[in-house]
Structures are given as structure tokens and as C-alpha cells.
Design goal:
10 strands; alpha+beta; 4 helices; three-stranded antiparallel beta sheet; about 35% strand
Length: about 170
């Protein structure tokens, strides 16, 4: 009894077309479904993130960085038994309770009364502490510390220097 052969004509025609283009059957791939562009993905992620302001104090240091790197050196920034948020310090000096960061100079600006946490629904208990935006940090500083920050910005002008607000949580 002869066997029956079933042919997927769409796939066969696609293979024939691929052969005409010099591709072998191994090289041939079906086209991928339409992918979201980067902008569409960013908007989807941004819309899903949840931001929570917590009443946990944030300790703020102003760090001056030389964009030409000629004046930067290793600076020991005290932690006061706190911890920095991810992305700031690469090295912690546990013996001296400090983070080592490259910069020109730093200035402790005290504490502000809030902190920020970002989470994503339906990802279990995932959340991450996030730094507050510069304009919010500056608004929440005491008037004394705002004047100090302003003086540092005048001493180290843009574009040669960058001013970063290094934020830490859980300080005592």
C-alpha cells in the first residue's frame, strides 16, 4: 500500500524562494513576529512601574567629578552604617565604614526625610531602592546645606565638572 505524502505548500514555496536567493534549507528561518520597538517597550515598562515614597531618611553627599579625569582621586565617603543604592560605589571599605569613589571633592549635606522604592507588580517581592531626582533633593535640603551646595557648584563649574548627589539609606 503506497504511503501518502502531505505537503505544506506554504513552507515548500518559502523554501523554493530561499533557494533562489542562494540559501539552503538550514539557512532558512521563518520571519519573526513583529517586535515592539525600543520606545514601545520603554513606555510599557514605564507605565507598569510603581513608585513609592517611604518615610525612611536618605543621607546625601555632594560629589564633584572632573570630566577630564585629571583631578579625580579616590575619596572615602563615610556611610554612617548605611548602605548606598546600587550603582554608586563599587568598593566598600568595611574597616572604615566608607565607600571609595573617584572624584575631586565631596561634601556631606545631611539627611532628607524621605526615600524612594520602585517595584513592578506580579514579580514577587521584587523592589529596588532608587535615588531621588536632583531637584527634589535640593528642595528638601536645609537652607544651610542648599547654600553649601550652591557654593560647591560655583567653585566647580560645568562643563568641566559634574555634581552628583550620592544618596545612602539606613544611616545613623
Amino acid at each position: 500500500m503506497p504511503g501518502k505524502i502531505f505537503v505544506d505548500w506554504e513552507a515548500l514555496n518559502a523554501l523554493r524562494e530561499a533557494r533562489k536567493q542562494g540559501l539552503s534549507a538550514v539557512d532558512f528561518e521563518e520571519p519573526l513576529p513583529k517586535q515592539n520597538t525600543g520606545d514601545e517597550a520603554v513606555e510599557g515598562i514605564r507605565g507598569a512601574l510603581q513608585i513609592r515614597v517611604k518615610p525612611e531618611r536618605t543621607f546625601v553627599h555632594l560629589l564633584v567629578i572632573d570630566t577630564h579625569n585629571s583631578l579625580n582621586h579616590s575619596i572615602s565617603i563615610p556611610c554612617s552604617r548605611g548602605h548606598s543604592m546600587s550603582g554608586y560605589a563599587r568598593v566598600k571599605d568595611v574597616a572604615n565604614d566608607a565607600y571609595l569613589m573617584d572624584g575631586v571633592e565631596y561634601l556631606s549635606l545631611g539627611q532628607i526625610p524621605i526615600s524612594c522604592e520602585i517595584s513592578l507588580p506580579n514579580t514577587g517581592a521584587w523592589s529596588v531602592e532608587a535615588p531621588l531626582p536632583d531637584h527634589l533633593v535640593e528642595r528638601m535640603l536645609s537652607s544651610f546645606h542648599r547654600r553649601q551646595a550652591k557654593a560647591m557648584k560655583a567653585k566647580y563649574p560645568k562643563p568641566r565638572f559634574e555634581i552628583h548627589y550620592v544618596q545612602m539609606l539606613g544611616c545613623h
